[in-house]
Amino acid sequence: MNSSYLYAALLGLSLSACGGASGSSTDSGSGGNSGPSPSPSPSADQIEHLAAGDATVAVKNSNAFSEHSNNLKGSDKIVSFNLGNDFFENPWVAGSASTSSRDGLGGLFNNNACQDCHVRDGRGHAPMVSATEDGTDFSTILLRAAKSEISADTVTAMHNGIMANVGDSTVGGQLQQDSVSDVQPEVELSVSYSDVTVSFADGHDVVLRKPEWHMISTYAAEGYDFDDDTIFSARVAPQMIGLGLIALIPELDIVALADENDSNGDGISGKANYVWSVKDDAVRLGRFGWKSGQPSLIEQAAGAFLNDMGLTSRFHQNESCMAHQEDCQLTANGNGDANEDYNYEVSDKILDAVGFYSAHLAVPERRDAYSDDVQAGKTLFNEAGCVDCHVASYVTETDPEFPELSGQTIFPYTDMLLHDMGEELADFDKDNRPASASVAYEFQANAREWRTSPLWGIGLAKAVDPEATFLHDGRARTILEAVLWHGGEAQAAKEKVLQFTAKEREQFMAFLNDL
Amino acid sequence: MSYINRALVSAALALGLAACVGDDDGVSEHDVKSNYSAMAYAAYSDSLDSALVLKSAVDTFIASPSEANLDTAKAAYKEARKPYQQSEIMRWDTPITLGKALDSDGGPASVDDWEGQVNAWPLDENHIVALIEGDEEINIDLLLAQNGANDNEANVTTGVHAVEFMLWGEDTHGTEAGSGERPASDYDVANCADDFCERRALYLDAAMDLLVQDLTEMKAEWSPEAEATAGTLANNFLNSDDALDYIMGAIRNMASDELASARMSAGLELGDPEEEHDCFSDFSHIAIFYNFQAVRNAWYGHYYKTDGGSVRGAGLADIVFERDIATYVYIEDALNSIESKMKAIKDAGERTENTVRYDQIIGQDANGTERKIAENAVDELVAIDELFAMATDILSLDVEGPDGSGD
Fold first, then answer.
1. Are strands A230-236 and A274-277 parallel, antiparallel or unpaired?
2. What is residue A460's predicted lDDT score, i.e. its pLDDT?
3. Stronger pLDDT, B153 or A190, i.e. the higher one
4. Please, which residues 47-66 of chain A have a Cβ atom closer than 8 Å to chain B?
5. Are A185 and A218 contacting, i.e. CB atoms less than 8 angstroms apart?
6. What is the pLDDT of residues B327-352, one digit of tens each?
């Protein structure tokens, strides 16, 4: 600044009140903390626009899912978050490289960076197809595989939360379509879609797309094809926001909502999944994953490192290669780093940082929570019965490790329980035939059961990534399509939605898009 | 540096005076924008000029692969880091650059894509070695085709760090003193210890040519002619209503996230010497110092050119000074405090006696003198975001975070 500026500034000082500066663009983003701005004049008792309480951030552009909790302060914590972000975002490298903290990818994997599936910390998508070509972009979606003809002892172990399932004998529990050089990928995958038309009572038609998955074992010629009894489960990468808050929903609240045998006769059961915790060496309530297969965020991260990226960690010290995949077995590991030796690839510091990062990715505030249309849509949502599973609100419990996330009133819209979503959304065999509810699939979750997805942030999914799709397998291109695929325990609620008038549909969608 | 009469400022503060927005004789948004564009042009011009000096030294070394010529090339590499690291404040795509048909003028469509070809890291050197020891013809086309090969972003074949690897080779010293020790004879075709000297030379030459090509392209994006040409970064920036948001977002992202976390703290936290920006050459102390200068430059609106001249004009700091002198002073004090620590890190790496490079700092225990300085710098770089958040409010900006990176 030169001195003429200085004097001009001082001469310009005025004691009179000044008008405010003109605002800039409405496309708000954030390079750091940005406190929530009030949505249309909420009164003192209106807090639902603050979906994550004090942790809520005011961002609505493509960075909406990439901010840390608004109340996360202190350089140590910010640095931990950023370190986790670094390792969430950047690619892992094959073999044993000079970037020794980031090596050991594969042999087999689905993708080489967390962020490449969880696009901008948001969700992935099912492959898109063209007029002539099937969809082959499996970069943000994967398929699991588990045998359905299993022993009574295995069923009991799964029921008791000791064992997840038995993987396919050729590919194991997950199909990995990518590999480091010199390793043969284990599968070739593609998908095609057929149209399914759903009609509202007033004659309004919506065209859905029903996927048909095509899985080929690359080892088939050598006698390693999928087992005849294997059931496949397509799973798209979920959004990453608010996970640390979901981890702190009191277990008693979740269990209180469970009604496994539908004792109250409302047609909705709701089942908790009790799963094995590698961390605690004990059975714990499952919270994360499409079937609630993981009890904690850090274990979810470690599981993704192993199965999605071929990276070992303190929780999983063996690669997931099959015995007949000799090239995978022989892949150079990335154990340890330049600083210290440890017998796995993702160091404790990095795993913990990614866990911390995942816990603190913030939920964006709602844009228009109190407008007439949105409020009317919320009433429709409640009256249709959606809210019976998509339970609106909780108060998180206190965890000394996460003070910012403790004691917050949050609005995730989930009961955290498993529900039978009907045959259309069921896991399937190699000929795409839906598996029945009698097939135990992942701990206590059967082939037709899915955890109620949290709905917060759903209205910003396409702002974060225009390619984002919905439901566990990404078949729904829009939120409305996702609603219309609901079956099973959600059938009655969907039938009510199908009675909506055009105006009601508009209000209903206004509410969902505001979440 | 900005030289404000602190006594005058104190007097103004004591009087509790606040300047009005929109004073006729105040700094205008237009002034800040046009000065920023001029700074970008100067920083990329210096980056290109220093890359041309490096290219000339590399050509000489390849023609006559002596240790002396290798040292000359290494020295030129070091000089080239200084302006380039300052240009990095302009390296992010944001909503103002995305979807704006930036390639309509034939230039890069995305700043991030361009940056990934010029300065990508981490770099898995095994991929470069495999290409050199392979049998495909080595030229710019091969480097471009193989950059990010196998859908792996770490398979970096192009840019600054590829050149760095070709000059230094792998640093096998861990956190001990010493950088990569590639012998000049790696390029001595007449006395080659293996079969790859010629292919190494071809590789280094191609990487260097491409780097010059890319910097030439980016300099053109910010030239005075570009300012008046639709489809250029400069024209897009100058015509954007969100240009100041972009500057503020870039400042905050560089200071608290990219520099503090990815480039300084990751190494300190993990104790891994390869988590430094210039891991083959051990010039990270230079790289991070000039990244910090980039923050100051963008804030104050000053860029000091390699030739001793400077681009000086209106910056965001001037508007904040007009509107809220207290915040201006807080930020100035914070920047000066960080500066002293960044300078101490640079000096430790530069001094001839008891030299301590950044990978050695990474190896120091909690009581290490330089480690403490570096950790304090990280803390202050993170903490200054609170002050920049205040500045963002004073400027009535919606900060445009970098886009597409998920930061």
1. unpaired
2. 98
3. A190
4. 59, 61-63, 66
5. yes
6. 999 999 999 999 999 999 999 999 99
Q: Compare CB distances from B122 to A93, A350, A353 and report the shortest one's residue.
A: A93
Cβ of B124 and A5 within 8 Å? no
* Distance (Å, whole) CA A200 – CA A501: 8
Structure tokens belonging to residue B200: 């190494």
Q: A420 φ, ψ to 5°?
A: -70, 115
Alpha helices in B150-283 (DSSP H): 160-168, 197-221, 224-227, 233-238, 243-252, 266-270
Torsion sign across C-alpha atoms B248, B251, B257, B260? negative
A335 — contact with chain B (CB < 8 Å)?
Answer: no
Give how far Cα B102 sits from Cα of A61, B110, B226, B231, Å: 20, 7, 12, 5
Backbone φ, ψ for residue B315 (5° rounding) = -130, 175
User: Do B401 and A94 make contact, defined as CB atoms within 8 angstroms?
Assistant: no
Selected for mutation to probe chain A from B17, B269, B332 (highest A CB count within 10 Å) is B269
Burial of A137 (0-12, 13-18, 19+ CB in 10 A): middle
pLDDT at residue B14 greater than cutoff 90 = no
Q: How far is CA A339 from CA A87, A101, A346, A468, B322, in A?
A: 17, 9, 13, 39, 49
What is the helix (H) or strand (E) element at residue B386, kind and residue range?
helix B369-394
User: Does the structure show a pLDDT above 90 at B324?
Assistant: yes
- What letter represents residue A138's amino acid? F
Please provide the DSSP assignment of B95-116 as one string. TTTTTS-GGGGSS-S-HHHHHH
Residue pair A112/A317 in contact by the 8 Å Cβ criterion: no
Q: Give the burial string for B198-232 (b: 16+ CB within 10 Å, else e).
A: ebbbbbbbbbbbbbeebbebbbbbbbeebbeeebb
What is the C-alpha end-to-end distance of chain B, expressed in Å? 29
Per-residue pLDDT for B8 more than 60? no
DSSP secondary-structure letter at B148? T
Question: Cβ distance B128 to B204 under 8 Å?
Answer: no
Can you tell me which residue has the tokens 């003193």?
A: B177
- Assess A16–B contact: CB distance below 8 Å, yes or no: yes
User: Could you tell me if B279 lies within 8 Å of chain A, comparing CB atoms?
Assistant: yes
Residues B291-316, mean pLDDT to the nearest whole number: 97
A6 neighbourhood in chain B, CB within 8 Å = 4-5, 8, 321
Residue B324, SS3?
coil
Q: Which of A11, A22, A77, A86 to mutate to test the interface with B (most CBs of B within 10 A)?
A: A86
For chain A, which ranges sit under pLDDT 50? 1-35, 37-39
Is residue A56 a contact partner of residue A72, using CB atoms and an 8 Å limit? Answer: no
pLDDT, tens digit, for every residue of A185-196? Answer: 999 999 999 999
| 81-120 of B, contacting A, C-beta below 8 A | 94-95
* Rg, Å, chain A Cα set: 24
